[in-house]
Amino acid sequence: MFTGIIEETGTIKEISRGSKSAKLRIEASKVLEGTNLGDSISTNGICLTVVEMGQNTFSVDVIAETLRKTNLGKLSVGSRVNLERALKLSDRLGGHLVSGHIDGLGVISNIVIEDIARIISIKTNSDLLKYIIPKGSITIDGISLTVIYVDEQSFKVAIIPHTIAKTNMLSKKIGDTVNLETDMIAKYAEKLLLNKSNEQNENKGKRKLDMDFLNENGF
């Protein structure tokens, strides 16, 4: 579990590609403090397991499913990635609860500078947009951000200078893809409501067991 508060940006130093998978070696410093083999590090919002550690580097395996569902397959040596260590129970929750499991991709469709803020518009599909609400939380490449606008095709976020300086958002341009994780609370709420609705529909077809029912059926 993560918070979406980026600790640092790392640099991809090496990519070893398999037939459908890849191994990334990433240069970092802060996220390596206290990190051991088998620990999880959010990399551009994706929960990945540390499989090797070196001098100021760590390596992660990326399976085919992750390459299909995220933007990791489009990165190259030298690309900057947002990094965050897994949340400790004693930590402050500065962002929001983030699982590190990407729901889908978005495409940056517009960037506007508004005084100190950078307003970024992102297009994505309706399956994700239904979970996105104004003033709600969204994770973009691992960054916890607040939604300021939503319509049928896209949503907007406003990014302050501190976040721009601490993440890879400064290098983003129109047409770039980003990893999106919607608010997990919305997904759980939808699941519970669907289950309740299904139960109600099932119960509509069931008649109450009472004396009239028994008499009608010869008991």
SSE pattern, N- to C-terminal = EEEEEHEEEHEEEHEHH
Fraction of residues in β-strands: 35-45%
Query: Mean pLDDT, nearest integer?
Result: 90
User: Percent helix among the residues?
Assistant: 10-25%
What count of domains describes the coordinates? Answer: 2
- Assign an overall shape: globular
Q: Unreliable stretches, pLDDT < 50, 5 or more residues?
A: none
User: What is the radius of gyration computed over CA atoms, rounded to a whole number of angstroms?
Assistant: 22 Å
Please give the structural blueprint.
Elements: E1 8-17, E2 22-27, E3 40-43, E4 46-54, E5 57-62, H1 64-69, E6 80-85, E7 104-114, E8 117-123, H2 126-129, E9 137-140, E10 143-150, E11 154-159, H3 161-166, E12 177-182, H4 184-204, H5 211-216
Antiparallel strand pairs: 1-2, 1-6, 2-5, 3-4, 3-6, 4-5, 7-8, 7-12, 8-11, 9-10, 9-12, 10-11
Would you kindly provide a written description of the structure presented here, covering whatever features stand out?
This protein is α+β, with helices and mostly antiparallel strands. The protein has two domains: 8-85, Elongation Factor Tu (Ef-tu), domain 3 (Beta Barrel); 104-190, Elongation Factor Tu (Ef-tu), domain 3 (Beta Barrel), CATH 2.40.30. Helices cover 20% and strands 38% of the residues. The chain is built from five helices and twelve strands. Strands 1-2-5-4-3-6 form a six-stranded antiparallel beta barrel. It has a six-stranded antiparallel β-barrel with strand order 7-8-11-10-9-12. β3 (40-43) and β4 (46-54) form a beta hairpin. The protein starts with 7 loop residues before the first strand and ends with a helix.
